[in-house]
Amino acid sequence: MDQLPNDDEIECLLNIDDGINDDEKKIKNKLWQEGSNDRRDGVGVSSDMDVPIDSDMIIEEEQSILEAQTSSAVEELKLAVAFQGKGAVQRQVNALSELRRLLSRSEFPPVEIALRSGAIPLLAQSLSFGSQDEQLLEAAWCLTNIAAGKPEETRALLPALPLLIAHIGEKSSLPVAEQCAWALGNVAGEGEELRHILISQGALLPLAKMMLPNKGSTVRTAAWALSNLIKGPDPKAATELIKIDGVVDAILRHMRKSDDELATEIAWVVVYLSALSTIATSVLVKTDLLQLLIERLASSNSLQLLIPVLRSLGNLIAGDAYTTNAVLVVGHEITDNIIRALSKCLKSEHRVLKKEAAWVLSNIAAGSVAHKQLIYTSEASPLLLQLLSTSPFDIKKEVAYVVGNLCVAPAEGSGRSSLISDHLVSFVRSGCLRGFIDLVRSADIEAARLGLQFMELVLRGMPNGEGQQLVEKEDGIDAMERFQFHENEDLRNMANQLVDKYFGEDYGLDH
């Protein structure tokens, strides 16, 4: 793909592994959903503490009052922890409840003042074994909200992590275990270093066990925390997770029977498993997971669910050669079902679904001639051409990979690839060339290379010199000449060779 193909050889425009190296596609974005991130507060903003937004003075006054209340709440918790008399437990629960209320109720939670006042050691002490569930729950809830703060605030939980992990064990009540899992998920969402610490302290196994039963919100929270914990970039946790007894069965059961919310969290676990671990991928493709993902893709209208389902499909299809073969060569029926479901996404109003669906299709299109033919003859084909002409740049680029891959056959034993002429001619005569020339004119190096490669296909593959006329008509010569002195040597050589070969001194003499 780095060298301009000659007359006898054309490399596949998109290698089967391309695409999953892009973090945006391969793994879950930092944004959990629009407007919030991977970490979640333990409770929403309460209406009785809404902060006025029309006066900076009022906001500062409200914040000052809130900070003073928080400092007093931590001081009361300190006294309650030290108190040993009658009603000591209830006093401590009340103090924890007040601190949790303050940490939960503001648009700008007073986490910093709570930390400066010494909240973490007190909260860790409140998690001591043998404490009542109400006390444990309130303490874990406070820590959950602190962990949803700034990076340095999340790191402040380090002394409490072993206790949080201990309380997600099987001996804990479900509410306590779930709240502790929530706190750990927030910590894991902060970064690789904290994920490594959690894994080294043994968080993976108890979280995995929490995901196994059918217990509604507890399973959903555990799956969410697990997806944050295994997100890498180190693949070790993903590989360890897939080996835990019952995990694969639980993934399949929840994907088959659960509501959209739980299926969304399970699908994110699958995204990371399939993106980071070849061992996990090889295990998953031997199950009926692919069919379950296709069914979800076809039946659901939940954007939050469809995105991880698409990424899971793409990751499974874009695995190594053996895995890809296992996914796609199970028969045309399942591939045809995938294409139909992806076509639904191409017609969606959501641009992210169009982009993700095009990425998955590009990996299918990089497969066998039979799979290329399935896409070419499906309803996806006209949809792709329309998107190539009318879409924003990011979608157009993904669609261009699909169209380009549909026009070249995979390399055979000689290592050489050849054109699929009927695909190429049909697409070009349907007007796709302009979209590729737009890519050549873009500042995106990868997109420009893709555009130049497709122009080479057109110049070489269209019959009766038609390619040269079409390229000239669409101002393709001008687009290529902009690379005459380009700093990228690869693109400069590609463009100059095309101009010299197809539009040299003899061009136009016989017209």
From TrEMBL:
**Name under which the protein is recorded:** Importin subunit alpha
* Any one of the GO BP annotations: protein import into nucleus
Q: Which GO terms describe its molecular function?
A: nuclear import signal receptor activity
Keywords, sorted A to Z: Protein transport, Repeat, Transport
Gene Ontology CC annotations of this record: cytoplasm
Family the entry assigns: Belongs to the importin alpha family.
Stretches that traverse the bilayer:
none
Instruction: Fetch the InterPro entries from UniProt.
Output: ARM-like (IPR011989), ARM-type_fold (IPR016024), Arm_3 (IPR032413), Armadillo (IPR000225), Importin_alpha (IPR024931)
- Quick check: keyword Protein transport in the entry? yes
